[in-house]
């Protein structure tokens, strides 16, 4: 029996369908991004239970605000992460941290300058991703945002492993050049 391969929908296409109330599209978005968003929440909150709650709230926010997504302003993944970050931050404000004893010595949390630098770096990387051809950007998104190995990416895209490696190497070189130009 011949297997029919349907092209995978982009995040932007899925978000457009989610905006129209398409539950299977939302389930696919959730399947793609639940683990990375949970990881983001764990890093921000430091508690698995609160992180799971924040992840659920983040996807509720994605469902509710999908109609505000504008593919003309950028790719779907950065928009989704921005919505998730906002939901996690809102969760931090609503749920106060339990009172803990102060540690002796310097704190382990990054200071505001470090957080601002990290946010600026993330913005520059997302902007640099926009210069990549779609086939290279997709490989980078699968590797870094979904955490897939190169073998898993090759299987997912239905292309040879060597092609994935070449696209990854080319994309990383383009990103390095784009970021280097921006820092001048």
Outline the structure in words.
The chain is an all-alpha fold and 184 residues long. It has 8 helices and no strands. It has helices at 11-19, 23-45, 48-65, 76-94, 112-129, 134-144, 150-157, 161-183. The radius of gyration is 19 Å and the shape is globular.
The class by helix and strand makeup works out as: mainly alpha
Through-space gap between termini: 56 Å
Shape: globular
Total of helices: 8
Average per-residue pLDDT, rounded, comes to 82
Low-confidence stretches: none
Query: Roughly how many Å is the radius of gyration?
Result: 19 Å
Query: Beta fraction of the residues?
Result: under 5%
Number of strands: 0
Percent range for helical residues? over 70%
Order of helices and strands: HHHHHHHH
Largest sheet report: none
Outline the fold blueprint.
Elements: H1 11-19, H2 23-45, H3 48-65, H4 76-94, H5 112-129, H6 134-144, H7 150-157, H8 161-183
Which tags fit this structure?
single chain, 184 residues, mainly alpha, 8 helices, 70% helix
Short description, anyone?
The protein has 184 residues and is mainly α. The chain has helices spanning 11-19, 23-45, 48-65, 76-94, 112-129, 134-144, 150-157, 161-183. Helix 2 packs across helix 4 (76-94), helix 3 crosses helix 4 and helix 7 packs across helix 8 (161-183).
């Amino acid at each position: 029996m011949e297997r029919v391969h349907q092209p995978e929908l982009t995040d932007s296409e899925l978000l457009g369908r989610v905006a129209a109330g398409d539950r299977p599209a939302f389930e696919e978005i959730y399947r793609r991004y639940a683990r990375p968003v949970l990881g983001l929440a764990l890093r921000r909150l430091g508690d698995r239970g609160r992180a799971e709650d924040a992840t659920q709230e983040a996807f509720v926010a994605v469902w509710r605000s999908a109609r505000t997504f504008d593919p003309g302003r950028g790719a779907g993944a950065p928009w989704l992460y921005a919505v998730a970050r906002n939901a996690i931050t809102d969760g931090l404000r609503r749920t106060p941290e339990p009172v803990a004893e102060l540690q002796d010595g310097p704190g382990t949390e990054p200071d505001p300058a470090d957080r601002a630098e990290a946010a600026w770096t993330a913005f520059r990387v997302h902007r640099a991703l926009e210069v990549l051809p779609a086939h290279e950007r997709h490989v980078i998104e699968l590797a870094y945002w979904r955490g897939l190995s190169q073998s898993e990416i090759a299987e997912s895209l239905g292309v040879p492993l060597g092609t994935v490696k070449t696209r990854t190497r080319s994309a990383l070189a383009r990103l390095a050049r784009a970021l280097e130009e921006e820092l001048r």
